[in-house]
Amino acid sequence: MSTTTTTTGTSTTSNGRPSWIQQALQHRTLLNTVIEERSFQTPNKTYAYVPKTEDVEEGFREMSYHELRNAVMKMAHWLDAELGKLPQTRDNRECIAYIGPNDLRYAFLLFGADRTNRKVTKRPFIVSALTY
To answer: Which residue segment(s) compose the domain that 39 sits in?
Structure first.
């Protein structure tokens, strides 16, 4: 498996996946575990670049793994507070739907849902007269 480094400094594998995701898949490590490890081992390492404001012309700021972990934990706490706490068993995974923008909030929800024993489905939401 060959890796390359992008201009943002993240390594990607030959299939285009970031190397940390590829390693998690190979070792069957949960992505939440990888986020935890990265947030403690290299808390200031860049996870993503996010716009400073709604106008991308104003530039971007770095979001670290530490900030990612905090966002995921806040989402997990919010889900438990709003939907109730679930037992951590494989049989009780609750499915929640996500209808919204395809941005970092989706990643926060996806990882936060996993931490609270939920799964997320994201479907194109198309309503037409032909559906009925």
So the answer is: 3-131
Contact (CB, 8 A) for 96 and 68: no
Q: Do 116 and 80 touch, CB atoms closer than 8 A?
A: yes
Residue 32 pLDDT class (50, 70, 90 cuts): confident
Residue whose C-alpha is closest to residue 67's, from 93, 33, 44: 44
Give yes or no for a contact between 46 and 61, defined as CB atoms under 8 angstroms apart.
no
Cα distance between residue 86 and residue 68, in whole Å: 23
* CATH code where residue 92 lies: 3.40.50
The Cα–Cα gap between 23 and 17 comes to 10
- Average pLDDT estimate for 7-25: 58
